[in-house]
Amino acid sequence: MRGPLTIIGLIVFATISFAQTIPGFIQADRDMDGNRLLLASLPLGTMNSARLPLGENAAWIAGYFAGGSPGWIVALDDGSLIRVRIQNDVPVWNPVAPAQAGGRSQSDHDGTLTLLWDDKRDNWFPAEAGVFPEQFVGDEGPEPLLDGHIAAGRDQIVAYLSGATTSYPHGVLGDAVEARSVTILSNRPIRTVSLAPYVAEERGVLLRDLNGDGTQELITILADAQGGAFVAAFSAEGELLTRGEPIGRGFRWRHLVGAGPIGPFGEELMAVVRTPHIGGAIEYYDADLRILASVPGYSSHEIGSRSLGDAWIVNVDGDGRWEVLLPVQQRDQLEAISLSPQGPRRVWSYELNSRLSSNLGIADPATDAPAGSPGLEDTARPIAALMVGTTDGMLHVWWQ
Prior knowledge:
Radius of gyration: 20 Å
Number of helices: 1
């Protein structure tokens, strides 16, 4: 990475008893570490598929595996919840009530749909949005954003955005409240790092070892009214390591999709969508946050939505390179884009016949307790499943 950069601000220290265990949970629009990387295979071109007419639009979809089969909890626009499962190779659905998990229940579909593992019922059930901050923060840590994600990574590191502010009234993520600091928890004291003069125009951070040094960096999107959004990477101690180029105009946003082996030769790169609302383009970043390639014509976010899960990094064709799966600019078609040595190419596409209304509901076999997730080097990969909703009241499902 390039040399350390100066950022105006203050690091505040506090002490905390770090939680030794993290409860089983699934958030609809990202993984526990803030990434959107599916290690299981998703061979969409050869999978079973179906269209389910619900008559109501799906807003949020959280996928899971239980007992070796995929399932999904779907939050509809009318506030109701349904569960979809594959039975006898046919998708079936029925209404479901939220779990009472410690007195909590799903009540706000403006927040991310979160599933908790229920040991008594041996299944996943919807619960209150978000990872419960007091599990990690206690009474001493600063309060996370109300719709924020608390990312948990390796080496007992937990990080989240904090310090709510309305100083940058862009409002593309559902409201005009952004974060002015990032808080980092570990076995060391809590560190709260000011982001001034910028704000974080995101709902969380991505924990990822971009440069292969064995330590996870904290990556997020920062912005201001002069230059707009840019990608920034922090160390686990809160030092700003490097930053990408800003868009060059205020109130222009970037969507941080995730990081994974999406380079031309399977190398680790990061996928970002520049200005997804107005002429979006997939940007591929290296560890120094330099843009190596840009592919126009894509929109990974609906302006005003809190959902950041409309794009994922997946393995569609099994060639050793992962693809970016996301909607085209009109949001009425899904495409999987590979960055090959010859340049970007479309390896799969699907016509939705209506605009996307939900996040990409990935059902990951790694959520099938107590199964683990495959590594990138593993050749035998389980098969994931996918569900999306569209504005014509339809659910689109792919399973094996």
